[in-house]
Please model this.
Amino acid sequence: MFKLLKRKSFRFDIRHQNGFTSIAIICFIFLYTPIFTMMVYAFNQGDSIALWEGFSLRWFVSAWGNEQVKDSALRSLIVAIFASGISTTVATMAAIATTRTKSFRGQNIVYAIINQPLMVPEIVTGVALLIFFALVKTVTGYAGLGFLILAHTAFCIPFAYLPIRARLEGMDLILETAAADLYATPWKTFRLVTFPLLFPGIIAGAMLAFVISLDNVVITELVKSAGQDTLPTYMLGQLRRAITPEINAISTVLLAITVVILTLFYLLNRKSE
Amino acid sequence: MKQQRSEIAIRIEDITKIYGEGRGKVIALQDVSIDIPENEFFTLLGPSGCGKTTLLRLIAGFEHPTKGKIHLYGKDITAYPPYKRKVNTVFQNYALFPHMTVAENIAFGLEMLGKPKKETDETVNEMLTLVKMEDLKNRQISQISGGQQQRVALARALAPKPRVLLLDEPLSALDQKLRKEMQIELKRLQSETGITFVFVTHDQEEALTMSNRIAVLNSGKVLQIGTPREIYKQPSERFVADFIGETNFLKAEILGCANGVASLTLPSGKTVETNVQKGFSPEGTVNIVIRPEHATVVEDPAESLLQGRLINAVYFGTDMRYHIELESGETFTVRIQNNPDDKTSTQFLGTEVCIGLHKNAVQILKD
Model:
């Protein structure tokens, strides 16, 4: 590795800049050392997250047997499935409305509003939702999972919207024109031409929304009612007490799921290009 | 050869199309009226931005005219959406559906019309035979070449048996050789199917060789409509004469005009007579055009109608082009076909030459 860093080249190449390789390596070390350490200690036999006592899968077994973990993981999944489903549907419609219609006055403002949750600090959205939902709760008396799903849907929309819109913008309008020319009504054009070509984008959007919903902490923590812990908020709660490698085990599983989903997302996007 | 009394397939009536409003407005078409009879290979010819593609899109229904009407076999279709017009389009970059096979692409229009499965399959096979693509029926669009995609696009547009087929510069993406092949192919398809073709191109040679009639457009206006021969031999305006083929432009004085024959004085002072179109009686100073191949170099000064000094002789294989500087200072081109015994003519450079003209070589322009 050091040989690589010290390489001296006299041949000029625009793609080669001194120091880039070392900077890149340092960045990777920064990013992945903590995660790697966390994963290693998930397999620790002892009770500590800092002292290695040998290899074991006991914390995975323990996490699997923990009713609270199972309960919150299930809740996380339910919320993520509903939130990604609803947000993707809304995002698809929004993407079509912003790319497949005549350009209208204030179109840029619409883009900005759709993408607003990406820019506004999460804590602001969380507090706003907390106050608003508290109001709704007193008026209606409803305190179910619906609030959490709604909150997640809200911040998932821009994440689902971006890949769908990117895909739509890459699709030539001429194909829809050709379908209309060949006697397809607007609905049939959408169903037989636009939608099948857009599908990889929709899947990518849904997966991104799913992952974002799955690991949200701030907004969930603020919006959830008592006993509505999702996996991330449960873990946060655990950290306040005794920390065992069980947390590492859960995190490792969560990381694995995220990596699998993001890999699928990448492969889908690549295939469609 | 001319089709008498045939039905009018497309009637374009006083169409104006304006994009935008206020200061930024662009007049794409202005008061355009064209009648296209059934079973005609009709070409819209003009430089880019002349409005030819806009006109095609108006016929297809992708755009709506600011003013005017479009009739399809006597029926006003101006307000119809594209999917209700019995016309199909072959797009410039084909616009084939990438998620369907060749056969599925061709079947698309038939399925949308609700044709029974059996009939659709039969028509698809018929179309595949027509464009010689039977072997590639189940290929994906990405697996076939540009020329093959062109054929599929044609088959897809022809399959629903449209009353009019619109072709938007369909050959511009092909290389020279394939282009020539497809030109012949298109002519064949038109005569075999009997469908009216409206063909858009900026290539004058393509227009001349393929069309029954041509409309020359410039800046949103129709300048001249006629057979390729009429357009070439009797251009009515300077733009038409200049856009199609090579031309010599000169000025002349009209002496008189009677019974469709005008006599005029050339810049050399010599007088010639030429036919003029019916109902056109030019007077005063006019612009005239003479095609280079309608002129010749003569030895007898008595036959000479124009004189000048030979400044350049260019060998073109099939013919020679002589550039002659007239007494009035203009350069005049004469094109003479080569024969097997031809010799270099450079020894004549700088000498005075006499130019003779074929009968009716002089055409009087309206502008």
